């Protein structure tokens, strides 16, 4: 399958090979150092809460930074924003590998997140430029979703191995070297794909998706899915290595099983979404989140010390996460082809800020070494999304009925039967 853009000469497989490293490295920046989190406060002379803040800050900034990079990518193009973001990511990663100051570490994490956000918005906007309105868009989103779902499986395990062999600082050096390789390939092979140049930043364009119910529906779908996973990996080290006494390596392997469930699910989304339709797949994903949360609540009450009692329900939650993350981007961006970069920025910004703030609030209010933060987050957000889906469906049905009534009324104002 080839792209519709004459300047993009690559097959779908080559496109995935060129684009995916940027998504993978952005996600690895969050997941890879999870096994080392309990041991980093001593190295940086700070508290566990501060290290936890570096996780939350990265996630929030990776979304919020795109409010700048989305409009810039529409004005300047995808390529310069991508390469600039890659450079910022490299500088920040190498600095993180060297610093011994908690304050500097937090600042560099913000810079690293900004670089990652620039790469993400350029990558997703490029996919939209090339494959908008085509079946390939669902296929490539499904493939990218599968690859991103693999990161939580391999990221903590890879981080644990690097930490064991070379120390936790080598984790960030690894990320920097990976981005150097990805940026070098993009410099050589990634052409500009922007369909049309936007004359100015046009910040008013940021309001376009805000007025669209469909955009909110799929953005909150992403918030529900990705936020559930954010709360999970935020509490998992303390719950499993702290309360349940799991080792660092065993934690990484158990954590990986949840990600494998996500990989398995995302692998089929490219075929499921066109067949069932985005609204049905969205509801299926939210149903999985709710079912998993109910099972987690039961096991937390009756078998709270059981590792399997925590991980097994998370497999079902993982299915919901992968489903939501796969269906959300294309649904949220539908109808905004002319400002894909800007709308992508708003999508990731709102999603990141909402899931980061709501997730952090729930973690702060509830005991961190229990499953209750995941339970409350999944039930709350999934219920909101299902409710909004019902509203959207009702509005669509009402709009169709009004259209049918208009079609049945002739030019003379008299009712015309369909048979006429």
TrEMBL record:
Residues 15-395 form the Major facilitator superfamily (MFS) profile domain. GO terms for cellular component: plasma membrane. One of its GO terms (biological process) is xenobiotic detoxification by transmembrane export across the plasma membrane. Its main location: membrane. The chain crosses the membrane at residues 50-69, 81-98, 104-127, 139-162, 168-187, 215-239, 251-269, 281-304, 310-333, 345-366, 372-391. Signal peptide: none annotated. GO terms for molecular function: xenobiotic transmembrane transporter activity. Keywords: Cell inner membrane, Cell membrane, Membrane, Transmembrane, Transmembrane helix, Transport. It is a multi-pass membrane protein. InterPro entries: Efflux_drug-R_Bcr/CmlA, MFS, MFS_dom, MFS_trans_sf. It is found in: Cell inner membrane; Cell membrane. SUPFAM superfamilies: MFS general substrate transporter. Belongs to the major facilitator superfamily. Bcr/CmlA family. NCBIfam families: cmlA_floR, efflux_Bcr_CflA, efflux_CmlA. This is Bcr/CflA family efflux transporter. The lineage of its organism: Bacteria, Pseudomonadati, Pseudomonadota, Gammaproteobacteria, Pseudomonadales.
